[in-house]
Amino acid sequence: MAASSTSGSGRDIGGSGGGLAAGEMEVEAYRRLFPLPFYERHLLDSVRPDARPLHRARDTSIALGPVASADGSALVKIGDTTMLAAIKLEVMTPSADAPDEGSLAIEFHMPPICSPIVRPGRPAEVAPVISKQLSDVIVSSGMINLKELSLISGKAAWMAYLDIYCLNADGSLFDAALLSAISSFSHLQIPLVSLSDDGRVVAVPGDLLEDKSTPELVNKERKLLLHSIPFSLTCILHKKYILADPTAEEESIMETSITVVLDSSERLVSIYKPGGSVLAHTSTVKDCIVLTKHRMKELQNILEDSLSAMEVV
Amino acid sequence: METRLLTCLQALVSLSLSPLPGRPLTRLCCPAPTKCSFSSHRRRIHSSLSPLDPRCSAVCRSDVFAAASCSTAASKRTLWFGFLFATGWGGDLAHTACSSPPSRLRISLSHRRTLVGSATVIGEENGVIPQANGSARVRLGATDVIVSIKAELGKPHPLQPDKGKVAIFIDCSPTAAPMFEGRGGEELSTELSFALQRCLLGGRSGAGAGIDLSSLVIVEGKVCWDLYIDGLVVSSDGNLLDALAAAIKVALSNTGIPKVTVNLGASPNDQPDVDVSDEEFLQFDTSGVPVVVTLTKVGRHYIVDATSEEESQMSSAVSISVNQHGHICGLTKRGGAGLDPSVILDMISVAKHVGEQLMSILDSEIAAAEASAEDQ
Amino acid sequence: MATNPSTYALSQSSESKQRLQQRRRLFQETDWTRSDGRSFHQCRPAFLRTGATNAASGSAYAEFGVTKVIVSVFGPRESKKAMMYSGTGRLNCNVSYTTFSTPVRGQGSDHKEYSSMLHKALEGAIILETFPKTTVDVFALVLESGGGDLPVIITCASLALADAGIMMYDLVASVSVSCFGRNLVIDPTSEEEACQDGALMITCMPARNEVTQLTLTGEWTTAKINEAMELCLDACSKLAEVVRSCLKEAASG
């Protein structure tokens, strides 16, 4: 809401002083009472209440490493939607049918702080849905080679627990969650480990690396190699309009959404259109894919910038 | 109606009168021998206890003892304490007429120690061990609580290999008060459990713990005793925390922990074999277990051992646990209203005074009951 | 995705366990330096900001050293259906932890004890009569736990309540102090908390000089309590000033 009051589009038409305040009140009331006509009036002028053109996503930022106690973490903001993702690595015994593979456990949480609809003990319905979508996309995109998570074949491998917390839910939750997930994987620093006498894997503190008495290291690579990173864009379909990166308000008023996931070599990973009143033409779907391509380039740049910024520091 | 009750209570409290109908203050002061039931390991015996203290007078009912006393303060005002005794003190409390309608403290030490051989299996290699139970029931007026203690073999926490573990769970029976019906008692139950943990288990490093956790260790880092302290509020008429803490102290005093013999395994990594004796028991040292004194603020005064009726009108209450050295071992505040820091410090000094005497009486009570149990 | 339950976190090697023992011994001495270079009576630098979650009526983010907390306030809104009529407003508090907030991955569940402590610390400061029949929800999420979590949650919650425009008698500030042997150490880190002999936490309304919540663990003499309370109350009033200036900044900016 705060963002929309500063926007210059459409609604700040009134004069100055008291007249403006009264005008603002009426616009705000109209927006609440007749949200759909309010939006349609904007769409006619190809602009959205927050002054965005229909196809533009909100400002996006990525901050890497906000959680010091995690092995990899990222804070992602798309407009006001905020996601905090963190990866903790634990050691497991790999299963018999895949002795040289690690494993991923991805969970998406919507704590009560993020939205008025979530209350303690009554979790949001969308949280498990997004969890499932995320792990499907990350696994099927082949971004992570699970073999890289192996430590000792058949004996020990990494289990990567990725937990994503939504701190502020303002639409396009999946996009923000996926972006935070891939950002935290690119920030992931794998700890150097050795094998202790009793067969457990233990961490080797940095200051002991030079020490000759330190047992031999099990792993050497500290970074995961990420292949074909998936990026996504959610669009709202309403009549003939396509609204990219919707806010929570837009999602609540116009119900049909479509989420496209492309990987960095422009291959389609997933399309998700969960019903809704608008039946999309193939041309609309194509348009969405084109929008996602543009968005992917944008996100790639943002991610690269934040990674290089981290290296400089 | 509520405001009327409050003003009425305040007026009565400042006049040192009991607001409870049918409980005039004088009726409690009939000296008589106290009786207390106490049973040793497997036998049940009854013993008589003489009045606790020359200054204290006691009331007797068949299986019950209650005590109250009065003394005159410098201000020539009679001060009443609900808990077993009363003491007066001088001008430092001029702004707080510390008086309360005495409710009767009834303690029955029900020492039913049953050896449940097949009840619990601890760890696969240790097989079946007998379980020792200690228990106590404390009544304060209409407040009635039961505490039982179970000792089981467990493994010390990896970060604290030289300490045993104690878990305190309190359950408020739905029949104890109308507000406990359904899930109403849950919040209070957890609150009481946490408050007792804070009062009895000391700081993180184990300093100042009422229950000496290092005495529960059998083999460092490998085997220790886990004490499960389960409290049940049977009937609630205020002052639950004090009653529960007293019951835990009494229950601990007759908890026998089976003697164990340890056969260390061949390699240091093996879990050692532990042989639990079902004949010999080690008595638990409870001298360090603190007592809890709750001071309830009603209007401008604060009172000890408040009933439900009085608690309904309280602005806040401070529960302070005091150990045998007169040190404060834990403190919790309840109730919304804020307190001036100086009032809190004053309450602490009052609680120290009250707690020390309650402690000595409880201790001598336990000792006397134990002594008479051994005589039999 | 099926999570494999038989995983374990990297355990500290034996050297670091020895270090822990050393640190314990060190804390018992009369003079030692804190790992972050503070003096015993110096608090961590506090960073507070309002408006962390715009879907809420009010919210705040607090960062005290490593400890990071977000608190959102919702309401006053309709009470739960099962609730009886109440002439005064209700306060509902919940504290939860993220799974990665602690060094070893936890379950990230609700923290019942802290929820009830937060409730007790705040209820005395809020003018509940101003929102009859309705409920104000205060939800806290600990993003990273680095010691003194509860005092940070309480202080942050009071800022969030002010941001939501809930009427209060005064801002609430909370500070804890740890006791090591003869030393009192204010605003402890989790490393220090793990070895402390005792702890005292005060929540107060500095302008009214009223204590809304006080908890104490470990063995204390009265003189020590006196000293610790003075130390905390002084720190509370300073912290309240930081909170106030944060509110002023938010209002002017």
Keywords:
A: 313 residues; alpha+beta; six-stranded mixed sheet; four-stranded antiparallel sheet; 7 helices; 12 strands; C: 253 residues; Ribosomal Protein S5, domain 2; 5 helices; 29% strand; nucleus (chain C)
Describe it.
The complex is a heterotrimer of chains A (313), B (376) and C (253). Chain A is an alpha+beta fold. Chain A has a domain at 60-228: GHMP Kinase, N-terminal domain (Ribosomal Protein S5, domain 2), CATH 3.30.230.70. In chain A, 31% of the residues lie in helices and 25% in strands. In chain A, the strands form three sheets. In chain A, strands 1, 2, 3, 4, 5 and 6 form a six-stranded mixed β-sheet that branches. Helix content of chain B is 22%, strand content 32%. In chain B, the strands form six sheets. In chain B, strands 7, 8, 9, 10, 11 and 12 form a six-stranded mixed β-sheet that branches. A four-stranded antiparallel β-sheet of chain B has the order 16-15-17-18, sandwiched between helices. The model of chain B is unreliable at 11-132 (pLDDT under 50). Chain C is of the alpha+beta class and 253 residues long. Chain C has a single domain, classed as 2-Layer Sandwich (Ribosomal Protein S5, domain 2), CATH 3.30.230.70. In chain C, the strands form two sheets. In chain C, strands 1-2-3-5-4 form a five-stranded mixed β-sheet. In chain C, strands 7-6-8-9 form a four-stranded antiparallel β-sheet, sandwiched between helices. In chain C, helix 3 (149-163) runs parallel beside helix 5. At the A-C interface, strand 3, strand 4, strand 6 and strand 8 of A face strand 3 and strand 5 of C. Strand 18 (328-334) of chain B pairs antiparallel with strand 9 of chain C, so a sheet runs across the interface. Chain A: Its main location: cytoplasm. Chain A: InterPro entries: ExoRNase_PH_dom1, ExoRNase_PH_dom2, ExoRNase_PH_dom2_sf, Exosome_comp_Rrp42_subfam, PNPase/RNase_PH_dom_sf, Ribosomal_Su5_D2-typ_SF, Rrp43. Chain A: It is found in: Cytoplasm; Nucleus, Nucleolus. Chain A: GO terms for molecular function: mRNA 3'-UTR AU-rich region binding.
SSE layout and pairing:
The complex is a heterotrimer of chains A (313), B (376) and C (253).
Chain A: H1 2-6, H2 18-33, H3 35-44, E1 60-64, E2 72-78, E3 81-92, E4 103-109, H4 126-140, E5 150-152, E6 156-168, H5 173-187, E7 193-195, E8 201-203, E9 230-238, E10 241-244, H6 248-253, E11 256-263, E12 268-272, H7 282-312
Parallel strand pairs in A: 4-6
Antiparallel strand pairs in A: 1-2, 2-3, 3-6, 5-6, 7-8, 9-10, 9-11, 11-12
Chain B: H1 2-14, E1 34-38, E2 45-49, E3 57-61, E4 64-68, E5 70-72, E6 78-80, E7 105-108, E8 133-140, E9 143-154, E10 165-172, H2 184-201, E11 217-219, E12 223-235, H3 240-253, E13 256-263, E14 273-283, E15 291-298, E16 301-304, H4 308-311, E17 316-322, E18 328-334, H5 341-375
Parallel strand pairs in B: 10-12
Antiparallel strand pairs in B: 1-2, 3-4, 5-6, 7-8, 8-9, 9-12, 11-12, 13-14, 15-16, 15-17, 17-18
Chain C: H1 14-28, E1 46-50, E2 58-64, E3 67-78, E4 90-97, H2 112-123, E5 134-144, H3 149-163, E6 173-180, E7 183-186, H4 190-195, E8 198-205, E9 210-220, H5 222-252
Helix pairs in contact in C: 2-3, 3-5
